[in-house]
Specification:
Strand content: under 5%
Oligomer: single chain
Number of helices: 3
Distance between the termini: 21 Å
Length: 51
């Protein structure tokens, strides 16, 4: 399943807002929760959004 570019863009905005306020462990937990919520293809989408 392909995650739409719009969803990845929304993730990137969310990460940009939250990441400066989180430590490394919190960032990883947030990304894992987002990837799991997206389902198949979520890990790749989150990895690309977090760049």
């Amino acid at each position: 399943m392909r995650i739409p570019d719009e969803t990845r863009d929304q993730l990137a905005v969310r990460f940009a807002v939250l990441f400066p306020h989180l430590n490394e462990r919190q960032r990883r937990l947030l990304m894992a929760a987002e990837a799991r919520g997206l389902g198949h293809g979520g890990v790749r989408a989150v990895a690309r959004a977090a760049r």
